[in-house]
Amino acid sequence: MTTENAADVPTRPILSYIKDLPNLCSLAGLGCTLMAIYFVITGVYAAAMIGMIWAVGFDWADGLIARKMKGRTGADRRFGGQLDLLIDIVSYGVTPALLIMSYGGFNPAFLPVAFIMLVFGAVRLSYFSTFGLSDDAKYTGLAIDNNSIFLVFLFLFADFFGQPVFSIILAISGLCLAVLNVSQIKTPKLSGKPVNVVLLAAYTLVVTAIYSWKLT
């Protein structure tokens, strides 16, 4: 990859950007995603849900922290934006797709669903990275972090269905979310308001308590 803008010439070591508080928050979310992936693969889905929702919490918090901090350079903001983008495809693309594959017993029939979710997720993130918010400061398409928020909520009802039935429900839900991600609907930027971050924090704590109880 070549650098076309002189302003993009690096002046600091790579690892120096980790010290930026919003980036530390983003990496904490990545750690939660890794935990979620581990428990998805091992079939401990309650623990996986905790990891998934905490990943969203850290993702929302890093943006709020970044906007409150003073003295961050343009390079800090660009690096943080790219770091967020790369983490998002793992947290909200790979992890939900893997969840559907795992809960379906890694049946090859679920591979197309997982592939569509990954493709649409990558396209959604690339679109936002290129064009940003619409003229009315809204997302075009459902923001991809909503995928995890919804799936974590949906999984609360898994015990009401047999595994084969709920695996189909998950797959259909994943496909619907993927289509919404790349649709032309306009949705507000929920993560940009402190009150929404507080509401997500409350939701995260409640969900964590419920799934922790399921683990006992």
Task: Give a brief description.
With 216 residues, the protein is mainly α.
Can you walk through the features of this model?
The protein is an all-alpha fold. Helices cover 69% and strands 3% of the residues. α1 runs parallel beside α3 (74-103) and α4 packs parallel to α6. The radius of gyration is 18 Å and the shape is globular.
Write the layout of secondary structure elements.
Elements: H1 21-42, H2 45-68, H3 74-103, H4 111-131, E1 138-140, H5 145-154, H6 163-181, E2 186-188, H7 194-215
Antiparallel strand pairs: 1-2
Query: What is the first-to-last residue Cα distance?
Result: 49 Å
Q: What would you call the structural class?
A: mainly alpha
Q: Which sheet architecture does the biggest sheet show? A: 2 strands, antiparallel
The Cα radius of gyration reads 18 Å
Range of strand content: under 5%
- What's the number of helices? 7
- Contiguous uncertain segments of 5+ residues: none
Number of strands: 2
- Helix percentage range: 55-70%
Q: What is the strand arrangement across the widest sheet?
A: 1-2
Run of helices and strands: HHHHEHHEH
Average pLDDT figure: 90
Q: What does the overall shape look like?
A: globular
